[in-house]
Amino acid sequence: MPDPTGFPQTYTDSYKHIWAREEPQLHDVCQVCGVAFSQRSLWTHDENGKAVAIPAVPASSLDVARGTSDPVTSQIETWLRAQFEQDLADLLAKAKEYGSSDLVVMGKAMGALVPSAAGNQAREIELAIGHYALGKVSRLFGAWEKGQNPTIDSWKDLTAYSMMARYVRANGEWA
Ligand SMILES: [Zn+2]
Predict the structure, then answer these.
(1) Residues 16, 83 share a domain
(2) β-strands 18-19, 11-12 pairing
(3) Residue 120 lies in a domain
(4) How many domains in the chain?
(5) For 53-73, how does the pLDDT look when each residue is reduced to its tens digit (9 = 90+)?
(6) Cα(3) to centroid of ligand 1, in Å?
(7) At 155, which helix (H) or strand (E)?
(8) What separation in Å is there between the alpha carbon of 120 and the centre of ligand 1?
(9) In a domain, 119, yes or no
(10) 100 CA distance to ligand 1 middle (Å)
């Protein structure tokens, strides 16, 4: 499908910003509105390419229920909310990368190892995702054994796999 903006080989994130490469770095700017990658979650742009501030997330019912403003909790919560936004974009990209047919095939192979799951496709797909997750955990320990700091991508991939497994558990199949 031709890119309507005329920019070849670009990546559009969940805020509609368009980046020159698939994994934008901190100092990259949106090709439409010029917003820096580090500010991407605070801005989107309108149909004229004008940057528009995204309104702050309203207090959730959780905030109301809690009724306190514990500084440690709120520091963690602020950080998490920002991560969830990025994780959402990453997970949508992963959804494209992992077609459900790959997971079905890998699930069949995994089902052969775990007879109690064999023939239950949702269970097999969870096993396939667990298999991929185990690969990432192995990568963490491989780095530690070599005295290196594992790349943060291994942890991020584990977030993605966890959410995929939860989606499968809730929906019975991967998109
Ligand atoms: Zn933009």
Answers:
(1) yes
(2) antiparallel
(3) yes
(4) 2
(5) 887 766 565 555 555 566 777
(6) 15
(7) helix 152-171
(8) 44
(9) yes
(10) 31
